[in-house]
Amino acid sequence: MTDVTPGSWPTGGPSPATPGAVTLTDLLRVPMHRLRLVGAVAMVGLLAALGYVLLVPAAVTANAVVAVRPVVTDAFTPSGAGADRAVNMNVESGIATGTEVVQRLADAAGGHPRDVRGALEVEVPTGGQILRFTYQAGDAQRAVQSANLAAQAYLDVRRTMYEQQRAEMLRSYDASITKVAAQQAALQKRASTVKDTAAGDAVVAELAGINNQLTQLNSARTEIAAVDVNPGWVTQTAEKSLATSAGNRPLYLVAGLLGGALIGIVLAYVWESADRRVRSVADGRDASGLPLLGTVRRPAFRGSPRAVDADVRYVAMAVAERVRPAARVALLSTREDATALTAGLAVALAADGRDVFVADDSGRTERLRATVLADRGRLPIDPSRPLVPKPRPAGSPAPADGGETAAPRRPSPHPPGARPSTDADATLTLPRVSSARPDNGRVVDPDEVSVGVGSVRFGTWRQGADHGLVLFNAPPAESDERGVAVARQGSAVVIVERDRTRQSDLRRLVERLRAAGVTPLGFVLTRNGRA
Hints:
By secondary structure, this protein is of the alpha/beta class.
């Protein structure tokens, strides 16, 4: 009674298939299934960016440009083709952001040198002798003043360095001139005391060399003293009208949203690798190794569940093909509730003339009854099914042998029991109490729902022991073992809900069934809040 008819579908795992190419849809499937996680992390990034925009004051940027010139002895002499190499701009950039410039800005603004160094930025265009001073501050006035002060401080520091170098060179020349002048004075005294002509000529020649050397030193000192030590000019001063906000603040919101979405996608892939769900029929086959009995799709419109009902009827045909009229079928799931699918299968099986008993030991009988009544109202009308004639009421004439119907009798104006009889032996006619009968005339039990030419009854597993086809609405197998125990007395159908059933739970359920000696009929892939 509980044996399963051998089917033609293999119960082993699927044959290995060649791996297909990964498409863009495959890459987007994981983020789409984890859309809540991606959206939550994106919202966190957006809120973080919004908090930064609202709490952190906007920074104003001011720019000042300084043209750097080389220090030469003759400013009117062309410097040649390598004019851009006359000044080492890397050294000049280092001086512009050096300690002396930063300290002057800190003393003028009253801030910490570390903050000034972070707000000051010096740019050097490639191949040019230009320094662009950029300073960020909380207001435009401070940014403009600090940028101009930084440019002027650089020029002052560089001019001081050139002046110190010139002073050292002039001091060296002065020392050399003093020494040569002393030698000249000594030779002049010796020349005045020499009596010999040859010795006098030698002293005069030596004195002429000393005079020539002294002349060259004085000429060189004059050139050094005349050198222009100006390091450059401020070609563009910072102004309020030219000050700009440091960055477009709405872009921070876009960056926060996109950054949060990117982090959410990464987290979605990480979560998917740790928590694999059944996403398709192939995943269900790979995880369970069972054949597919059918899929129950989500309807296009939630208000029209006809597509789901049709899919349930296809699943019922697949189940009916693999079981005998008298069978015990347990509908098992891992963590999900299969009540709606159980009721749908019961309606589909009963519509074909079967008496189905739906057993439930978890207190869901009323839900099953309500779902069966709702699904019964959506059964399609089968024109090929003969209609069962209704029973004739009492007192109606029977048809004649020739097929002609007798003329109906005129109703009496005095119904039975309406007029009292004068006969003492007359029989009193009592009204007949009719029992609950469906349209086909069959007596219906109070705990029975008529579906088509079949019926659906409800009760516990023990109450369904004497019935033919029993569907057991098993509780989730991860928390209750009664579904596997019932499946040992018959067969089992595994319910897999797409995007919710974990592959690890599905593998564990199939292993428990096979360890208990149960060969499942197959699995049903559902994707609906009802089933």
